[in-house]
Request: fold
Amino acid sequence: TTFQDGGEEVEDGAVYNVTLKKVQIQQAANKGARWLGGEGDQLPPEHTVRQYETSKIRAIKAGTLEKLVENLLTAFGDADFSYISIFLATYRAFASPRAVLELLLDRFGNLETSSHGEVANLNSLESEMVLRAEIASVLRAWLDQCSEDFREPPDYMCLLKLLDYLKNNMPNSDMESRVQNLLKQFKNQEVEAVDGFCSTSSSDLVDGEELEMSSPEEFSSFQDHVVAEQLTYMDVMLFRRVVPYHCLGSIWSQRDKKENKNLAPTVRATITQFNAVTKCVISTILGTRELKIQQRAKIIEKWIHIAHECRILKNFSSLRAIVSALQSNSIYRLKTTWMCVSKDILLMYEELSEIFSDHDNYLTSRELLMKEATSKFANLDSSEKENQKKSQKRLQLQKTKGVMQGTVPYLGTFLTDLIMLDTALQDYVEGGLINFEKRRREFEVIAQIKLLQSSCNSYCLIPDQKFIQWFRRQRHLTEEESYKLSREAEAAADTNILSPKSQKSMVKRISTLFLGTDVFTPPKEQPLKSSPVGGSSGESTDSASVSSCEFNHSETEDVCVTPVSSPEDPLKKVQLRPLHAAGRPKTLAQGSCSDKGSGSSKGSVFDAGSGLDSGSIPTRDSGSVPSSAPRVLPVYNRQSEGSCIIRVSMDGLQDSVYKSILITNQDRIPDVTQRALLKHNLEPDAVEDYELVQVISEDKELVFPRDANVFYGMNSHVNFDFILRKKA
Reply:
């Protein structure tokens, strides 16, 4: 089979990519061989005749909403077999369920007045059956893949409209009874609160229970593998309930608006759980003032063992949460305590930390996730023999029992990838057509999330109510409280602590503890060094970082515990850059990566930048459909082809609360300032009241003149980090 580019086809309201597919359909003996009685499959190539068939594949590239909906009915005829799944997974970015359903049923699904191309002017029973089958196929896929689209309490208008259509056009069908059952199910679940998704909500506490600080004895009573299994159980329950379209950059980036406080509850729940695990780790280590250094070191060792058990269970979410907590400022600075941690366990911790190294846009964690996405068991490679023996023993026990594992990913990687895709690719192209190529890119990330959700069905974990209740009762320390307790535990180390901004790599090798180094800086998630990873502007972020802060963009509920600067030095702001998902999956996480410590796209579907580098992107000026000539997508921390992505935070807020903005070489200060205000949900008319400055270093800023060209005026040798500040 060979493929050939057939160019584009333009119709009224739609643009299609055409591919010619040449397939061998028959191999027969030639005339002379047939005279001798030979058969084609028994003769050498020179004595056979091959017959080929060329078919045309049309994939819609851009179109009006009407054309995109109509294409649901013609996609199979055009051999675009994945179109329905892509549309259903991403249409919420540009249309509502009601708008799509009305077009599908009223305009194209009316069996009496339909003007659908295949059956236009054909009143035969056959053509009616064809249309009915097409409509049924689309509706069945919709109910199978995105039934949550119809959850619209209390009226359920879309579901009732669909039910009415089925009663009139497909009475007594299996689909009619299915819709009736779905309506009944939704009504029974109506009492379920939005925050019911969060397994760690304090509202789940039994009456009379209060939040408390864990005692070391109670925590130590739980076996390491039990803790890991219960954290995995909670993560699995939440991850399986994630609605994929909630992760789209255009959806997730709107969560900061007041009217969207309940937007994407399934994603918020996973972020809340991630932060709860991170804060639980810190609370158990610092919560008890009376602990001796050796006792505190034992708790750190226990959490490292738990993290290792999470690795065996392929739970990368809790694994990353634990590693992030241990790398937080308040824990990382405990030099004397870390000196008491066993060397073997430190090596184990170092290996676990390296999984989330920011090198090449988190290439290690992305490749590992792809490798283990659908494998039955974890693939453990350890350079430390003792750790390898223990790991293999645990894995062998699992295999003997026949216990298969799914895979729980760190969702922040996908969120950043999707945010970056949303930032770098236009929603509409020339003529006001919806850019469906953008949706195909996003679906590559969404498909990975769905695959991992499916793998989670392999887990067979039983909840331990004793641990779950203990976990929910934990009182979480604020960053200020944890830092204060950390200073009380080891006050002398403070003079050697540097600002997180000075830390250039995410993972600080603990081996330096044995080298007598006096300077210890808490690791900070650095923007990736590859292609931009777009982050969402929120819990998942416009960029992504190691801790749940990756998720955090502007909501306090999403703020995770990561390295923080000393309260005494307010000038040293925390710079927790969420995972820069590579520009787009070359393919989600929406991620946001970049060349210089930011992420650039390199990699696979999980590599946010993966598919973008070779893709094309319409310019802001032309707005035309991308040409076939490959163009490099804009990335964070790198100027290319007259565009780049910058990060803008508001003065007075945490540096981690920033928005990714695409700029071109035509943009001046007023343009960029206005877009930054809109992204931060502020009045765009207040441009004159703000000034835009680029952060050069901790004590240097670049202030732009009123009408300066941002692209040419910025310092391209430092991070593309900007602050929007109200004028004095």
Remarks:
- Residues 113-122, 193-208, 493-631 have pLDDT under 50 and may be disordered.
- Residues 636-726 form a domain with the Ubiquitin-like (UB roll) fold (CATH 3.10.20.90).
- The chain has 24 helices and twelve strands.
- Residues 75 and 335 are 62 Å apart (CA to CA).
